[in-house]
Design a protein that fits this description.
Two copies of one chain form a homodimer. Chain A is of the alpha/beta class. Helices cover 45% and strands 19% of the residues of chain A. Chain A has two domains: 171 residues, 3-Layer(aba) Sandwich (Rossmann fold), CATH 3.40.50.1970; 161 residues, Up-down Bundle (Dehydroquinate synthase-like, alpha domain), CATH 1.20.1090. Chains A and B meet through helix 3, strand 7 and strand 8 of A and helix 3, strand 7 and strand 8 of B. The complex binds nicotinamide-adenine-dinucleotide (2 copies) and zinc ion (2 copies). The site of one zinc ion has 5 residues of chain A, from helix 10.
């Protein structure tokens, strides 16, 4: 097991990365008060991993209140959040009762937001069970639910007490979900670590075969980069925005097709290719840079052609992005492979992009 | 106009107290970006004060998006909160769009929570229009909505950018609401300022007659005490709990009778008398201390006899309190008039209290 430390102005917390971590009560107990936790998962993950974790906790004398939510991005809503509040209140959970999120990014984001709001702030622990959640959503304290008019529109910056990333949990992860997680892994390379892009090109097959050593290295590299960026800018007022590479486009794809049609990671993957292409159109990247991105995404099993939403709809959907300021949409673009920055894009480039070669032809 | 300054580790903000403040654009403009605000009020307050404030803003070139919510504690719910989110998203408000709360504590708490959650945190300004909101809820950053199983159970600590307390707005406040606000004013005397208790005994008539000088003094003294306590303990981990004097009992009354039957301030008033009586029963206060509290509450036009909820129900309702820790209910008690502390109460004292002289007889 390797432990990273994420240090912020008001708090710090460990990110444990390894195998067989659900057995280790000592990773959890320092963050639990009054021997009681709410263990929150969903109908797909709970049958796989809730029992062993529960056993670890109960053996350590901790009462476990399981809360099983419906599975899916469609349920990342206030109604589902309320199921958590109902259970917490019915079981008289106090404001120092720890909530444990056992699941992918949807569970992690919802449990984090529930913890942020329950009695104005309860402690919580992230146990991410998808690659995407291990490398991205469980770290950094962004929590949210969706609104019909926009994804992740309602939420909080609220940090967990610990993150426990166990590679063994990925054994059961469907290949498509693994690929979606790889999109966020690739993102770290593209936005800030050119060397890691090379490593990924060499190890993408091992990763897709769930080689635990390769996975742990990818998770560790990703989390270390995320921790570094978040520690510089917890509330996304500057450098943290770079983590949204591919996301402004990706969110438009998700919203345009209806949440859940494409996976978040798939949309981000296609979105990163659009960001690369836009970066080429404005003169930053070469054609071979763009092809390298496209190729890596393909090796990762990700879509590279975005749906044809129509220029108007693209712009409309992106105008709801949280990075919009003064009406201007701000994009994460690439200066080179391994170096990102934030800037607006000219209308004409956007038009070219949304009618161009990486958009589906009718 | 007098301006207090509330300084916290991460932020500081002004509390302006005076008259004719809705005309003063310069109190608002420093906290508004991109010349656009959402001005949120309710069906009772908007017809009285929304137009003049809107005019002040529009004259200064600020676009105003009015959001009018239904009036009342019954509507302090997620459904109402969602009306705010709907309007913000429909009007493409960004995460730096300022929300202005124009109303009593219900509007202030909801707008504050909406601001805390909108795109993970938008700026907001409190313009409290009830005495209670001016002396208490608008200051200190506690925001929340209710859950069927408990009041203010879902919320956030989230500070406004400014508080503007205009005595003129109290002209239209019903007498019963004014009295409810006086309960929180009296609270500050009881918990930490014996001299202020004497001042209140002398000026309670002037306050009830809406003498603006007396009101401004009461608001200023109250806000200064609250600001002092909050600056020591923003997240209520210590001394801030003292501000809950009368509230553990009061919340039980509100929940026991159904939210909205008694006003919050009325319940707190009766709750403070129970806290005083409990403090006498354990030997802290004298009979004449308790009578002095009772008399001041009566002069303020507040109820002093609590409903007979039955001992079991009292305990059950109080067990949901946010100050419960390790299953133990913690009460704010008086060491003397003007000095409070937090402690549990023996079962036998609680029994005596809830069957005693300040409980309604069948
Ligand atoms: N907070 C952040 O910083 C952040 C960052 C990126 C993404 N996100 C959010 O994360 C969400 C996407 O997360 P996700 O990709 O993990 O989706 P997800 O949580 O929906 O999980 C994907 C699917 O895999 C299942 N699953 C999870 N773990 C499994 C396992 N070990 N074995 C078998 N099946 C398993 C889930 O039940 C689900 O059906 C989106 O809502 C996105 O907005 C948040
Ligand atoms: N956040 C905190 O720290 C804190 C502290 C104390 C109370 N609170 C909350 O505050 C709420 C109670 O606040 P409240 O007592 O202001 O109630 P309120 O907001 O319901 O206002 C009382 C009534 O007076 C009306 N009103 C408001 N201003 C008026 C005016 N100027 N003229 C005429 N009518 C007016 C309102 O529309 C309402 O009908 C409760 O929900 C309580 O939980 C919060
Ligand atoms: Zn993402
Ligand atoms: Zn109160």
């Amino acid at each position: 097991m390797i432990t990273l430390d994420l240090a912020l102005p008001d708090t710090r917390y460990p990110i444990h990365i390894g195998q067989q971590l659900l057995d280790k009560a000592d990773l959890l107990l320092p963050h639990i008060r009054h021997r009681k936790v709410a263990l929150i998962s969903n109908t797909s993950v709970a049958p796989l991993y809730l029992a062993p974790l529960r056993q670890t906790l109960e053996r350590a004398g901790v009462e476990v209140i399981p809360v099983i939510l419906p599975d899916g991005e469609d349920f990342k809503t206030w109604e589902t959040l309320n199921l958590i509040f109902d259970a917490l209140l019915q079981h008289r959970c106090e404001r120092n009762t720890t909530l444990i999120a056992l699941g992918g990014g949807v569970i992690g984001d919802m449990v984090g937001f529930a913890a942020a709001c329950y009695q104005r702030g309860a402690p919580f622990i992230q146990i991410p069970t998808t690659l995407l959640a291990q490398v991205d959503s469980s770290v950094g304290g962004k929590t949210a639910i969706n609104h019909p008019l926009g994804k992740n529109m309602i939420g909080a910056f609220y940090q967990p007490r610990a993150v426990i990333a166990d590679m063994d949990l990925l054994d059961t992860l469907p290949a498509r979900e693994l690929s979606a997680g790889l999109a966020e892994v690739i993102k770290y390379g593209l936005l800030g670590n050119a060397e890691f892009i090379g490593w990924l090109e060499q190890h993408i097959a091992a990763l897709r075969n769930k080689d635990k050593t390769a996975l742990a290295h990818a998770v560790q590299t990703s989390c270390a980069m995320k921790a570094d960026i978040v520690s510089q800018d917890e509330k996304e007022q500057g450098v943290r925005a770079l983590l949204n590479l591919g996301h402004t486009f990706g969110h438009a794809i998700e919203a345009g097709l209806g949440f859940g049609t494409w996976l978040h990671g798939e949309a981000v993957g296609a979105g990163m290719l659009l960001a690369a292409e836009a970066s080429r159109l404005i003169g930053n990247l070469t054609e071979s840079d763009v092809q390298r991105v496209r190729h890596l995404l393909e090796l990762a099993g990700l879509p590279t052609i975005s749906p044809d939403l129509g220029v108007e709809t693209w712009l409309e959907l992106m105008s709801h992005d949280k990075k919009v300021s003064g009406g201007e949409i701000r994009f994460v673009l690439l200066q080179s492979l391994g170096q990102a920055y934030v800037a607006p894009l000219p209308q004409q480039i956007l038009h070219e992009l949304f009618t161009g070669r990486f958009i589906e032809k009718a």
